[in-house]
């Protein structure tokens, strides 16, 4: 069974930094895209950053150079370094992975979510 286990997050002051990580466990053949999304109650989930297996990266427009996504293919982990955090970054952050199993079937998985709160 494939699971995405997130760690990191918490409370930070404006201008501070946090690092999120998300490890994919279970039997998989390949991971294509890994990414981070966030959601505020009453609003749609939005893309924060994603990194493809070929290294291509996309960021949400609001990131503006503050966040860095990276992945370690050796242990199937994706990271999100968040710098210069703002109160409007407060949200629940979810990691996502698009995978292929040994039977060449494609599945998308989500992590359990982690709260990030930016407040004085």
Structure description:
It contains no helices and eleven strands. Strands 2, 4, 5, 6, 9, 10 and 11 form a seven-stranded mixed sheet that branches. The protein has a four-stranded antiparallel sheet with strand order 1-3-8-7, with no helix packed on it. It starts with a strand and ends with a strand. The model has no long low-confidence stretch (mean pLDDT 96). The chain is elongated, with a radius of gyration of 14 Å. Helix content is 0%, strand content 56%. With 120 residues, the chain is mainly β.
Give the topology string: H per helix, E per strand: EEEEEEEEEEE
The rounded Rg comes to: 14 Å
Which runs of at least 5 residues are low in confidence (pLDDT < 50)? none
Morphology call: elongated
Quote the beta fraction: over 45%
Distance between the termini: 40 Å
Helix percentage: under 10%
DSSP summary: helix tally: 0
Count the strands? 11
Main beta sheet, described? Answer: 7 strands, mixed
Q: What integer is the average pLDDT?
A: 96
Helix- and strand-based class?
mainly beta
């Amino acid at each position: 069974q494939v699971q995405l286990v997130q760690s990191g997050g918490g409370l930070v002051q404006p201008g501070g930094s946090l690092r999120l990580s998300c490890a994919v466990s279970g039997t998989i053949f390949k991971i294509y895209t890994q990414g981070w999304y966030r959601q505020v109650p009453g609003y749609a989930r939005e893309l924060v950053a994603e990194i493809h297996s070929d290294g291509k990266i996309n960021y949400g427009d609001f990131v503006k150079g503050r966040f860095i996504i990276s992945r370690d293919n050796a242990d199937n982990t994706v990271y999100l370094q968040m710098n210069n955090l703002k109160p409007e970054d407060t949200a629940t952050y979810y990691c996502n992975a698009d995978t292929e199993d040994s039977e060449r079937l494609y599945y998308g998985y989500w992590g359990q979510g982690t709260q990030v709160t930016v407040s004085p």
